[in-house]
Amino acid sequence: MAGSAKTGEVAALIAEVALGGVFLYAGGLKALDPASFALSIDNYRLLPYPVAAAMAVYLPWLEIVCGLGVLWPKTSRGALAVLLGLCLVFSGAIASAWIRGLDISCGCFGADEANRFSLVLSLARSVSLVVVCGWLFWREGRSLDQR
Questions:
Q1: 38, 77, 98, 107 - which has most CB atoms within 10 Å?
Q2: Cα distance between residue 122 and residue 70, in whole Å
Q3: In this predicted model, what pLDDT tens digit does every residue of 82-116 receive, in sequence order?
Q4: Domain edges within the chain
């Protein structure tokens, strides 16, 4: 039993570091080029361009702050809650674009064409992030209950 608890703690630590790194990297790339990110958001055809432009300035920094927050125990649960919500919204937007047959890049990692994924793969990646965020959030809540 003690071995499996230790394994779970190691897995959670690895997941937290990886998740924080993913959002630091993705947010950093988008923060460097908000104009391209605004166009990526606008390509989804879900929001008026002025809203997309505002989100292109705000969202990367939210991702960066939450990526850092996941790595700090005092803010981890709050950061995970925000990231879980973001990933659910991102998954819905990607699914919507795929269902509507839009031929767009998800914009998840900036405008770099080398990182271009099909929407189906982007959706799978986004849903995987939902699962990881959800698992870590649940785990954090459980550890709070045990204190």
A1: 107
A2: 22
A3: 999 999 999 999 999 999 999 898 888 876 644 56
A4: 2-145
